[in-house]
Structures are given as C-alpha cells and as structure tokens.
TrEMBL record:
<feature type="domain" description="SAC">
    <location>
        <begin position="189"/>
        <end position="497"/>
    </location>
</feature>
<dbReference type="Pfam" id="PF02383">
    <property type="entry name" value="Syja_N"/>
</dbReference>
<protein>
    <recommendedName>
        <fullName>SAC domain-containing protein</fullName>
    </recommendedName>
</protein>
<dbReference type="GO" id="GO:0005774">
    <property type="term" value="C:vacuolar membrane"/>
</dbReference>
<feature type="compositionally biased region" description="Low complexity">
    <location>
        <begin position="16"/>
        <end position="25"/>
    </location>
</feature>
<comment type="subunit">
    <text>Component of the PI(3,5)P2 regulatory complex at least composed of ATG18, SAC/FIG4, FAB1 and VAC14.</text>
</comment>
<feature type="compositionally biased region" description="Low complexity">
    <location>
        <begin position="36"/>
        <end position="47"/>
    </location>
</feature>
<dbReference type="GO" id="GO:0043813">
    <property type="term" value="F:phosphatidylinositol-3,5-bisphosphate 5-phosphatase activity"/>
</dbReference>
<dbReference type="GO" id="GO:0046856">
    <property type="term" value="P:phosphatidylinositol dephosphorylation"/>
</dbReference>
<keyword id="KW-0926">Vacuole</keyword>
<feature type="region of interest" description="Disordered">
    <location>
        <begin position="1"/>
        <end position="47"/>
    </location>
</feature>
<dbReference type="InterPro" id="IPR002013">
    <property type="entry name" value="SAC_dom"/>
</dbReference>
<keyword id="KW-0378">Hydrolase</keyword>
<dbReference type="InterPro" id="IPR043573">
    <property type="entry name" value="Fig4-like"/>
</dbReference>
<keyword id="KW-0472">Membrane</keyword>
Length: 497
C-alpha cells in the first residue's frame, strides 16, 4: 500500500476565508448567473454547466437538448443518423430560453411529419462516451443518477442506470451492424458495470484534489487528461468536435463517502475520495508491479476533505490531505490459481538501472513534490521466500536511485513488517501508523484554506517529534537513514500489496 501527502504552501493558498469558497470550480453554476440577464446569445460554455438532458429522434437526426439545473439555459446537440459508420455531430451555438426551445422542438416536429416527426427517446443526465466497433457508432448515456454527497455546494453523483443507443437509423445499417462479432462486442461493453464504483460531478473537478482545484480555479472545462478520468478516450470524439466538455461527464473510478459530524456544537462534513488510476489497471494477481512507463498497478489516490458547514458563506474553512498507494514498482507478477491461495511471486525481469522504478518516482515527484518517503509493509521473515524477495530487490532499487538523485531528493525507505507486528497480542497497529502519519504531517503540512494561527518550522525538532521518533524506532526499520529533521519530508508514500 502506498500513501502520500500533498505539498502545502500556505503563502500560495488562494482559498482564504474571504475569497476561495465562493468560486473555486472550473465552471460557474447557472443558478449564480444574473436572473435578469436575458442575453441568450452568450455561448461561453465556461459560464454554465448542462446537467439535465432529453434525447429526441427523427429519421435523420438525434437531438440532445441540454439544460442547466434550473432549466433556464438550453443548448442543442445534433447527431446525424444517415451515415452507417461515420460520426457527424454539430452543436447549435445559440443559448435558448424555455419558450424558445419549446418552439424549436415544435418546428422540428412539423418539419419531419412526413417521416414520423420528432419522438422523445430518453431522459438523460450526461454522455459517458461514444464508441464504434465494426460499423455503427453508439452513445453511452447516463439515464439515472443519485447524489452521494457534495463539496462546497457542488453535487457529486453516482450512476444508477445507463443505456447504449445505436446512432445510425436502422434503414442505413448494413448486415455488419447485426453480425455476431458486433453483437459480441456490444455484449462485452454492456458487461461494464457503470453503476458500481463510478462517480462524477458537473461543476466540481472531482478527479483533482481540493488544493489543485482552488489553485487552478477559473480554468475552463473538466481536465479529461487527468489519470483518474476513466472515460477520457470514450468522450474524446464529442469533446473535440464541440470544443468543450459541457455534454459529457468525466467518470472517476474508486469510492466516495461523506458523513456529517458535530464537534463542540460546530458542524463539519468529512469526505473520503478514492481515485483509481486508469493506467496499468487490472484485477488482483493479473496486474502487479510496474510497466515500462513507470505506471504501477493498483495506483489509488485517497483524499480526506474536511469542510466547515459555514464554507458556503465565505466564513468557513476547508482542509485536505492526499494519500497515494500502489503496487511495488518492480517487474514482478503472480499466477492466480484455485489450488494456491498464495501464488508464487515471480521477478520477471532484472533491470540493472531500475529505469521503470525511476520513472515511477519521477511521476510521483511531478504529481506531489519531493522528497518521497517509502513505507514498505511487506514481510521480512517467511518459511518459503515470497515477499522477502520483493523487499530485498526494492531496497536495492531505492539504494541505486539515491546514488543518482540529489541529496535533498533522496528516497527515504522505511520498512515495517506489518504482519509480524500484528501477530503480537500487545500490538497496537493504529498507534504505530498514527505516529508515522503524525511525523509526516508535521513536516509535509496539509492544505488549509485559512491562515494558521501558528506555524511550526520543519527545521526544528520538537520534544514531541523526538519522542515519536524513539517510539517508531522500536517498531519499524528506519535503515538506512539516521534520525534527522528530513526523515519525513514534503511527501509521504506507502508501497505494498
């Protein structure tokens, strides 16, 4: 398991009590627009978000009508159905009022009466993607959603139902569109369960941490190039043709949990957001270790967000801590077998320069900053060596890379045999993990929206810090690093499986 705390620079935080809480999303919600503004020709897509849609069809086209949450602003997306294998999409640049969109639909219906008119197809909450197999293009639509929480007033949703819509009209489809191979591909796509572990937001970039969203507020559109957006490829065709992200939703795979609590009469909300990387993804045993690009299997970023309930009134406070975990960045694998509950660990390739491992840590440094601390939880003692081999090779990799890295960017390798420690009746696992986390946070800091009343300098070791180090040294292996104020630095990472 790997965890990492995001670098925090209090002086650069833009989310102060007087400015950040009101406008840190990538989009301004339509409900915040001036209700007296009747200028419907403003097609700046960064000033609103589309959250509710209705799909209509004629023989020649699909019409996707999108509106903001309060149904005050309407847009039209036209999808051609006359081509059996091409995707032709055009976005109407006009912003319509409720009355104007009603009149438009009536005119479309009247103009297509000879071929069946305009027919409603589905109530939609966003396009999750567009895909083509052998011939026809298909739309992946979210038809039911459920709100699972909110961050600073920005709703977070999960998917309850989705639907696959064939774009070409049946009259122009060839036999290839109904072939066994095409139907098999459609069945495989339908087996992807979007109702489990996927979540999204129309107005808040949930694929990024709170700190990044505050620092980069004002940027237009959702960042689909983010490693935690799983449908980036599926939505690329629509986003590129429309040159915006208002028609599609960015799906994050992981988990979102939120609860409310009260401490001394003050209300807070606590959210845990886990984001799984789409790179080198796979099921347990089938994907292990690292690939040639430095991407590790089971790369999961978890963020803890604490929000004061007064945050919407600009008086509240926000805080965030980010952790990261992933598979050990070496070339290794396991062969799953029903006859072996603990498959053998195979070191597939020996890389004398540990190039892939270096790329992995460079990626982490780019995402979170330097230096990086590695807390390795795998076993040190086994009757039949399995994890021990990984520990030894990983330690060699870290030692080799530290010879190349500058001293201030050295990787800090800490080993703690979690399984051995947990077997003791007197073991207090939470106490050790809590001490590790506290020591790290003392030096890394965490994101906080207001000005702190006190600031602890990282180059001074307090009595508490020294005592905590003595406690840790009794339970975990700090080799090969001596006690110093750089033991736990700006980043914190745990690597294990």
């Amino acid at each position: 398991m790997a965890a990492k705390s995001e670098k925090s620079n209090v002086q650069q935080l833009q989310a102060s009590s007087s400015s950040s809480s009101s406008s840190f999303s990538a989009k301004v919600h339509p409900s915040e627009l001036d209700p007296n503004n009747n200028n419907h020709n403003n097609n700046n897509s960064s000033s609103y978000s589309l959250e509710k849609f209705k799909l209509y069809e004629t023989r020649q086209r699909f019409y996707l009508i999108g509106s903001d949450r309060n149904k005050r602003v309407f847009r039209v997306l036209k999808i051609d159905r006359s081509e059996p294998s091409d995707l032709n999409i055009s976005e109407d640049p006009v912003l319509y009022s409720p009355k104007e969109i009603k009149n438009l639909l009536q005119r479309i219906d009247e103009g297509n009466r000879a071929t069946g008119g305009l027919t409603p197809v589905a109530k939609v909450y966003g396009i999750a993607g567009c895909i083509k197999f052998l011939e026809s293009y298909y739309l992946i639509l979210v038809t039911k959603r459920r709100q699972i929480g909110s961050i600073c007033g920005h709703a977070i949703y999960s998917i309850d139902e989705s639907q696959l819509i064939t774009i070409p009209h049946v009259s122009v489809q060839t036999d290839l569109a109904h072939s066994k191979t095409e139907l098999r591909y459609k069945k495989l796509l339908s087996s992807v369960e979007l109702t489990k572990d996927f979540f999204f937001s129309y107005t808040y970039p949930i694929m990024q941490s709170l700190q990044k969203n505050v620092h980069f507020m004002g940027e237009q559109g959702m960042p689909y190039d983010n490693i935690f957006v799983w449908n980036a490829y599926l939505t690329e065709a629509i986003r590129s043709r429309c040159n915006n992200t208002i028609w599609t939703i960015a799906l994050v795979h992981g988990d979102f949990k939120q609860t409310r609590l009260s401490i001394f009469g003050r209300d807070f909300s606590v959210s845990l957001v886990s984001r799984r990387s789409r790179h080198f993804a796979g099921t347990r045993y089938l994907k292990r270790g690292v690939n040639d690009r430095g991407r590790v299997a089971n790369d999961v970023e978890t963020e803890q967000i604490v929000l004061d309930e007064e945050v919407g009134s600009r008086k509240g406070r926000m805080s965030s801590v980010v952790q990261m975990r992933g598979s050990i960045p070496l070339f290794w694998s396991q062969e799953a077998s029903r006859f072996s509950p603990k498959p053998d660990i195979i070191l597939q390739r020996y890389d004398p320069t540990y190039e892939a491992t270096r790329l992995h840590f460079e990626d982490l440094a780019g995402r979170y900053g330097n230096p990086i601390i590695v807390l390795n939880l795998i076993k040190t003692v086994e009757k039949r060596p399995r994890e021990m081999m990984l520990r030894r090779e990983f330690a060699h990799a870290v030692g080799y890379l530290n010879q190349i890295l500058s001293e201030e960017n050295h990787l800090k390798f800490i080993h703690w045999d979690f399984h051995k420690f947990a077997k003791s009746k007197s073991a207090n696992v939470l106490a050790v993990l809590g001490a590790v986390a506290s020591e790290a946070l003392d030096l890394t800091g965490f994101y906080y929206s207001g000005k702190p009343t006190t600031f602890k300098r990282a180059n001074k070791i307090s009595r508490t810090s020294t005592g905590r180090y003595v406690f840790l040294s009794k339970h975990i292996d700090l080799y090969p690093f001596k006690h110093s104020n750089a033991l736990f630095c700006l980043a914190y990472k745990v690597v294990s499986d």
